Amino acid sequence: MSDADTFRLFSDYNRWMNGKLYDAAAALPHAELMADRGAFFRSIFATLSHLVVADTIWLKRFRQHPSGGVLEPLDAVPLPAALNELPFAELPALRERRDWLDARIAGWTAMLDETALAVPLEYANTRGERFRRPLAGLLLHFFNHQTHHRGQATTLFHQAGIDVGVTDLHTLVPHLRDA
Fold first, then answer.
1. How far apart are CA 2 and CA 22, in angstroms?
2. Does the reported pTM lie above 0.85?
3. DSSP state, 118?
4. Percentage of the chain surpassing pLDDT 90?
5. Among candidates 135, 52, 125, which has minimal Cα distance to 93?
6. Is residue 86 within 8 Å of 79, Cβ to Cβ?
7. What is the largest CA-CA distance in the chain?
8. Residue 179 above 60 pLDDT?
9. CA distance 144 to 152
10. Residue 52 in contact with residue 150, Cβ under 8 Å?
């Protein structure tokens, strides 16, 4: 499996898991989604919002990479002002943005190849500090960050009495046939 194939797998996993979390969220009353459960971002809703915010920030950075042309629709999305921003007040609007972002991620990773992954990304963080880092390493961070906070969210769902089901990446790893 090439690095490009790995990132396509991560994109598929990202979309699959986000669907599972938003389906679980839709099963809860609004007050339960907003309840402070003592997590880093307090509530299930705020944790899901953080992922939308952070993904938006990173995708806008990735848009500046030579491979980022397919991410042009992100140009119309405002840059979030804070990592704890709540860009939407209701779950349906947040899910719509999540689904839209996941489609952008899938479209971009579908066209990445080893040549594109070898080109570094130059970007500024939210404090304006400049960096130049390998795209592949930043993509690993991007997908790992999502997994980290989705893990927090699954715990919050468990506290709310919701089982999101299987969350293992290997569920999506293709089966090999014996020769």
1. 30
2. yes
3. T
4. 91
5. 52
6. no
7. 54
8. no
9. 13
10. no
Residue with tokens 């993509």: 139
Reported as a single tens digit per residue, the pLDDT across 71-123 is 999 999 999 999 999 999 999 999 999 999 999 999 999 999 999 999 999 99
The strand pair at 130-134 and 120-124 is best described as antiparallel
Query: If you average pLDDT over residues 35-63, what whole number do you get?
Result: 97
Cβ-count burial 139-175 (b if 16+ within 10 Å, e if not) = beebbeebeebbebbbebbeebebebeeeeeeeeeee
Tokens at 109, concatenated: 């990773």
Residue 168 near residue 8, CB atoms below 8 Å: no
CATH code reported for the domain at 3-170: 1.20.120.450
Across 70-108, b (16+ Cβ under 10 Å) vs e yields bbeebeebeebeeeeebebeebeebbebbeebbebbeeb
Write down the domain spans for the chain: 3-170
Quick one: tokens of 33? 């989604």
Amino acid present at 158: H
- Nearest residue to 135 (alpha-carbon basis) of 150, 122, 144, 151: 122
